[in-house]
Write a sequence for this structure.
């Protein structure tokens, strides 16, 4: 059955190394990391990806005070996406707009802050804020956007661990195809650097990155990699059905060609290369493509010793004999933006449809032989012969895998 | 504590609760809600900050006493002074 064509017509982002697509892309091509040291409660200085957008660009101070960091990031990215899309907002039927935001987790930051706050008052719960519940409900980031923009259609988050950024886009494409909405704001967000629990959890797991130079702490595929750099960020797209986009003569970044979401069903944390390969293969089939049609693979690799190897095994299996494929990793620049990761990492590659440049994986000084997959683009950008299809992997805990394929738009 | 000092403490709290507002020309005898964009949630925040910063409890039945700066001062100044006397 021929599916309704869904296209990307706008995007807004904030990443540790850029607050617009142009700035972000420029830094990805120039090898500029966005990782810095921050003070984490109870843990001291840790490398982290910090965003430096202006939260007051689209919100009042009071709204920033009452809302969450994830909500603020979501509002910034959505407003930027809306402006970028050229949609005439005044004429849009707000009941037909959907907001679908991927989150790895939400509520840890606000809960930790309140517990810390009442610890200063002998844990007397009379000092617990009445803002706690609206801040920590799982739909908070999407709900804050609906308030800010007056969207009265469906607005909720999709919880999918670190696969969530892709899931937001995939879910939006599905809802557009079902004609539940006419315009979707979709992607992923993360405020995770503001919770010590994420850092401490990875530390206890032996999966938290450390390096004397924070800009070198995130080093997927390098032999000396030692774990994840936690980051905040957001990337939200406007998605529309092709006929709607064409009717308003919209700029089109690319077309959602195929996707797959599956589950390992094998472990809480450890990845499963067999299921990852299955996810990749099924997404390619869903797009009506063959592995040799894929020009860029943006890896999920988080720089954990085992995780990178498992993904490389999956890629090696699916893309055996594909000599022209280019493989890169965006976390080496920005760390792991959790729920935003998939959406941000896709955005960093979309301009390749125009300039054919594949941004590299940086910080690979000594390539791990077990990650030595043919096609890796290391440390310097590469000019590709062709960029017609970008495949974006995002995997998460509890064994959730997602692969999304965006192709060059051709009328 | 004088009533004017009490009003200043209340205005300091409002400045944090309603950071977008210009508090330079607040009329002490006019309801705060008629001069500022404050809703019931903001009044809960004011009550919480009085508790956190100054150890002052405002029972729900007395929330209406916080309507204007004058009524705040009338209601809160004795509480501040009682606290200081017991300190």
């Amino acid at each position: 059955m021929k599916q309704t064509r869904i296209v990307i017509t706008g995007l807004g982002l904030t990443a540790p190394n850029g607050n617009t697509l142009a700035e972000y892309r420029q830094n990805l091509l120039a090898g500029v990391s966005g990782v810095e040291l921050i003070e984490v409660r109870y843990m001291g200085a840790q490398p982290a990806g910090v965003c430096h957008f202006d939260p007051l660009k689209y919100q009042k101070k009071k709204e920033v005070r009452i809302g969450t960091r994830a909500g603020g990031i979501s509002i910034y990215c959505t407003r930027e996406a809306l402006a970028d899309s050229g949609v005439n907002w005044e004429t849009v039927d707000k009941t037909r707009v959907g907001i679908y935001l991927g989150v790895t987790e939400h509520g840890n930051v606000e809960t930790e802050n309140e517990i810390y706050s009442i610890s200063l008052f002998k844990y007397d719960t009379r000092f617990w804020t009445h803002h706690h519940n609206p801040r920590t409900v799982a739909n908070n980031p999407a709900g804050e956007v609906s308030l800010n923009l007056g969207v009265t259609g469906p607005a909720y988050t999709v919880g999918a661990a670190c696969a969530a950024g892709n899931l937001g886009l995939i879910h939006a494409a599905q809802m557009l195809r079902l004609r539940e909405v006419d315009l979707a704001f979709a992607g992923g967000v993360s405020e995770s650097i503001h919770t010590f629990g994420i850092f401490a959890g990875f530390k206890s797991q032996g999966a938290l990155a450390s390096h004397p130079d924070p800009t070198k702490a995130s080093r997927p595929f390098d032999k000396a990699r030692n774990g994840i750099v936690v980051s905040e960020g957001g990337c939200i797209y406007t998605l529309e059905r092709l006929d709607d986009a064409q009717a308003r003569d919209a700029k089109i970044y690319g077309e959602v060609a195929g996707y797959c979401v599956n589950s390992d069903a094998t472990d809480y944390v450890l990845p499963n290369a067999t299921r990852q390969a299955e996810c990749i293969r099924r997404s390619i089939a869903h797009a009506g493509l063959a592995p040799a049609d894929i020009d860029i693979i943006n890896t999920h690799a988080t720089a954990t010793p085992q995780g990178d190897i498992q993904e490389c095994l999956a890629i090696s299996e699916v893309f055996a004999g594909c000599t022209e494929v280019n493989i890169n990793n965006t976390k080496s620049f920005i760390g792991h933006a959790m729920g935003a990761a998939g959406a941000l990492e896709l955005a960093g590659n979309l301009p390749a449809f125009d300039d054919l440049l594949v941004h590299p994986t940086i910080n690979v000084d000594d390539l791990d032989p077990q990650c030595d997959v043919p096609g890796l683009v290391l440390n310097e950008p590469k000019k590709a012969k062709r960029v017609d299809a970008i495949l974006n992997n995002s995997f998460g805990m509890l064994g959730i895998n997602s692969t999304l394929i965006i192709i060059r738009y051709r009328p | 504590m004088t009533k004017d000092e009490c009003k200043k403490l209340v205005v300091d709290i409002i400045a944090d609760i309603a950071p977008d507002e210009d508090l330079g020309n607040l009329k002490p005898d006019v309801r705060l809600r008629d001069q500022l964009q404050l809703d019931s949630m903001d009044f809960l925040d004011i009550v919480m900050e009085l508790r956190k910063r100054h150890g002052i409890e405002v029972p729900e039945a007395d929330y209406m006493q916080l309507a204007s700066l004058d009524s705040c001062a009338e209601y809160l100044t004795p509480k501040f002074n009682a606290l200081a006397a017991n300190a």
Remarks:
- DSSP finds four helices and no strands in chain B.
- Chain B has a mean pLDDT of 96.
- The two ends of chain B are 14 Å apart (CA to CA).
- Chain B has one domain: 3-86.
